[in-house]
Design goal:
- This protein is α+β, with helices and mostly antiparallel strands.
- It folds into two domains: about 240 residues, Beta Barrel (Lipocalin); about 150 residues, Muramoyl-pentapeptide Carboxypeptidase, domain 2.
- It has eight helices and 23 strands.
- The chain has an eight-stranded antiparallel β-barrel with strand order 1-2-3-4-5-6-7-8. An eight-stranded antiparallel beta barrel has the order 9-10-11-12-13-14-15-16.
- A hairpin with a 2-residue loop joins strand 7 and strand 8.
- The protein starts with about 35 loop residues before the first helix and ends in a 14-residue tail after the last strand.
Length: about 450
């Protein structure tokens, strides 16, 4: 629903969150790629008794540094985003709730080159039995303990946004100090060592910093974490739609029934195209899929059905590709859940006009058309084959938060794994994955498709 406002300027996607998230335009995520030199820099380093590592994730470089209790697993080390400067020089910002140190990191040339942080040199080495620094899918992680999972989420305070996440059964703190960092991939990640129930120790340990600060969580009567105290600094929990189950509501600028009559009299735009989708019923074309078509119900932005058809349609070739994904998901115990497929131009017209002047820009203008009008775009999630229940993912559908982005590092390890599994199988089947909404995929994106206005039943 919110896809088009990628051209608008974002005023901190997370700073606009409240207990029920308010509507704001998500910033379009940029998709950087590692250079050949950067790929060659991935590896382990040491300086005297210090260990460190450089890792590539999502087209960016990160400097990993172990806290005192970090052990040998780099997934549990502190992670610092490396801001590119000139050539092989990067800025290392050890910025957290209680620390702030900025230094220059230089990658030395050559396959066996080391790195320098200010005047300190680190040489390459290969520790015995060290885990790979290249992220791999791996096996499905175990769910984390429910009492600690209730602490995972967003927290706001002292002019900053934090996210508590889980990795291998341990909590970590994502600290964002760059306001433009919508998906939090340029934020630092710090270890939270558990002392006892709801009491932790934040380890802001890096090449130039070494701080240990007590952290305490408070909960509501239902057991949800509602505040986080880091030293003397207080952070308040910011609940998302996926956690509250309450979508943001906008009262239509014009009653939907009036807009439907208006749309019926309007003509769909005639835009250049190379192909025309051959629409098929997804329930017939993809055996075993489940439907949760939010815009055919009141569980959406407008609080009433926008699309009157209770079925999901998609291009025949795209549906065949989905059937392949459905089969590949079965060994993992999952099936495909469809949130939205084809939407007629008339239904899109109604939605665009219902937003009114105060929310224009949330969708393209009617004359521009919408990706779901093409019949090759689909919004998908997962359900559990054994129970038939929708699977808990990293965010809800059409949720406006950093969790909507495909590279968001927060949530639980299991929720990230499920998101990435879906993305991997969909892209292998020929779908292009959106970096801005983890649930959105376009089939055969190399070609333009005709804007359709067929009423399906």
């Amino acid at each position: 629903m919110y896809r088009k406002l990628m051209q608008s300027c974002l005023t901190l996607s997370l700073l606009v969150l409240t207990a029920v998230p308010v509507l704001a335009a998500p910033e379009k995520a940029k998709q950087p790629e590692l250079t050949l030199a950067e790929r060659g820099a991935v590896g382990y380093y040491r300086s005297s008794s210090e260990k460190a590592a450089v890792q590539g994730r999502n087209g960016r470089l990160y400097f990993l540094y172990p806290p005192a209790e970090g052990g040998s697993d780099p997934d549990l080390w502190n992670s610092y985003y490396l801001e590119p400067q000139r050539g092989s020089t990067y800025e290392l910002q050890e910025v957290g709730p209680t620390t702030r140190a900025v230094s220059s990191l230089v990658l030395e040339k050559g396959d066996h080159g080391g790195l320098r942080i200010n005047q300190r040199s680190y040489s390459r080495f290969v520790p015995d039995g060290a885990p790979s620094l290249v992220p791999e899918p791996g096996e499905e992680p175990d769910p984390m303990a429910r009492d600690e999972e209730a602490l995972v989420g967003f927290y706001r305070g002292n002019g900053a946004i934090c996210a508590v996440r889980e990795e291998k059964g341990k909590l970590q703190l994502i600290y964002r100090d760059r306001q433009e960092d919508a998906d939090m991939t340029r934020s630092n990640i710090y270890a939270l060592n558990k002392l006892h129930y709801d009491a932790y120790e934040l380890k802001e340990t890096g090449p130039n910093t070494d701080a240990s600060t007590p952290v305490r969580f408070d909960r509501d009567r239902s057991g949800w974490g509602i505040s986080m105290i880091i030293g003397s600094q207080s952070y308040t929990r910011v609940f998302t739609r996926g956690e509250t189950g309450k979508p943001r509501r906008i009262r239509p600028a014009v009653p939907l029934k009036d807009l439907r009559a208006e749309a019926a009299a309007a003509a769909a735009p005639e835009l250049p195209y190379e192909k025309t989708a051959d629409l098929v019923d997804l329930e017939s074309a993809v055996p075993g899929i489940h439907l949760d078509l939010r815009y055919t119900t009141a569980d959406n932005l407008f609080g009433e059905p926008l699309v009157l058809s209770r079925k999901a349609f998609l291009d025949k070739n795209a549906a065949a590709a989905l059937a392949g994904v459905q089969q590949k998901l079965a060994p993992y115990g999952y099936g495909l859940l469809i949130w939205e497929g084809y939407r007629s131009w008339a239904d899109f017209y109604v939605a665009s006009k219902a937003l009114g002047p105060s929310h224009e820009g949330m969708l393209p203008r009617p004359e521009e058309g919408y990706s779901h009008n093409s019949g090759r775009s689909v919004d998908v999630s997962l359900y559990d084959l054994e129970t038939g229940e929708n699977v808990s993912m990293i965010s809800d559908f059409d949720e406006i938060s950093s969790a909507q982005y495909a590279a968001f590092p927060g949530g639980t390890q299991l929720s990230r794994w499920r998101r990435d599994l879906l993305r991997r199988l969909m892209t292998e089947a020929g779908f292009a994955a959106s970096p801005d909404e983890w649930w959105h995929f376009d089939f055969d994106k190399a070609h333009s498709y005709k804007i359709l206005n067929e009423t399906m039943s």
